[in-house]
Structures are given as C-alpha cells and as structure tokens.
Specification:
This protein has four helices and five strands, in the order E-E-E-E-H-H-H-E-H. It is α+β, with helices and mostly antiparallel strands and 142 residues long.
Length: 142
Amino acid sequence: MEKIGEITAVKGKMLEVTFCRPADCGHCHACDGGQKETVVLVEGSGRVGDYAAVELPAGTVAKATLLAYFLPIGALLGGMLLGDVLFHHQTAWTAAFGLLCMLIAWFSVVFTEKYRLKSAKWRPVLSKVLPKEMFETEKGES
C-alpha cells in the first residue's frame, strides 16, 4: 500500500512526511481520531516541499489488520466458548469471561506496539521522492 505525502521537515537522515485526509473522506473519524493530517517519519533523503511516496508492504498491512481486529474478536469468541465450558452454561459468566479474554488480547496488542515499531518490517519505507515541480505542473493543467 503506497501513499503520497508532502515532506514537511528533514531531520538528519529522517524525513517528516505529512499526509492529508482525502477530500472525499466520509469524516467517520476512524483514522487517527479524525485528524486532518497524519505525520510519519521515514528514512531517506529529500527536500522540504517535495513529495514522497511512502509504502508499507502488503504483508505488513495484513498482519496489522489481523492483530488489530481479528485477534481481539477471536479472543472474545474463544473466551466465550471456554467460559461456557468452565461456567457450565451460565450466560453472564460466559459473556464476562469472553470480554475479559478480549480485553487481554487488546491490551497485549497495545503494549507490544512499541516493540513492533522498532522492527524494520513494521515501519513504512520511502519508495521514491517526487519533486514539487512535478505536482505544480499537474495542478496547473487540471
């Protein structure tokens, strides 16, 4: 998955790339709490004002989706099945045990996030730098 953003700062070998929310966004606030911009640091070289194509490998996106969505839901369902056996079909205890398992899974994802981000395979990478002149020409033609 590749997105193009503007380089807003250069800090040594790191580029600060700012992505704006698309104009056709439904304003559901699901992405970054509804912020209008998202800032990402990537390693590379470029100039302030240029545009950068930043990508995350497809496998990483799939793994992140599994961790963020399917692990907690799977823990909820698995916890409810186990709770049903442990608590002999008592619905309230079964549901409570399922919720507890889901919360444990969710907190484990949240607390291990900083360790995943230290790994190069979880970080976005710079695929190319596009000069701002290229975008100014396209905007003028439209």
